[in-house]
Design brief:
alpha+beta, 2 domains, 3-stranded antiparallel β-sheet, 5 helices, about 50% helix
Length: about 130
């Protein structure tokens, strides 16, 4: 019965930890106002990929010579000339394996301790 409780506790802990395994990364995207307003610019072409996903969109923007992408920054944190440039803040989520690895290690240790405790509490076996 005790081992069952440990298993349930581990399962609940895993669910809680998994919910905190992602983090948001912000990107400040700076483009000249001329490129933003030009329907044929590289910047505007990349905006068509925005619906596909942030990763593809940012990869496209990195090919545009007049666009600058500042990783882990929002527009309010980046200095730029607002008369010359437009800035939009994009975001993406990334998986962070650290908490999951720690949870697995703790779970294994708890399972070993629970197994050792359950065998020692049973006492000597009679033939």
């Amino acid at each position: 019965m005790g081992l069952r409780r440990v298993g349930l506790s581990l399962a609940l802990s895993a669910l809680l930890a998994a919910s905190g395994c992602t983090r948001i990364i912000y990107y400040a995207v700076l483009a000249p106002n001329a490129a933003v307003n030009d329907g044929d610019s590289c910047f505007r072409g990349c905006q068509m990929l925005r619906a596909v996903g942030t990763k593809q969109y940012l990869a496209c923007l990195n090919t545009c010579p007049d666009v600058r992408v500042v990783k882990e920054s929002e527009c309010r944190e980046v200095a730029f000339d607002a008369e010359e440039y437009a800035c939009t803040t994009e975001h993406n989520q990334t998986f962070s394996p650290g908490p999951v690895i720690a949870l697995i290690v703790i779970g294994v240790l708890l399972a070993v301790v629970a197994a050792a405790f359950s065998t020692s509490s049973q006492g000597p076996q009679m033939p």
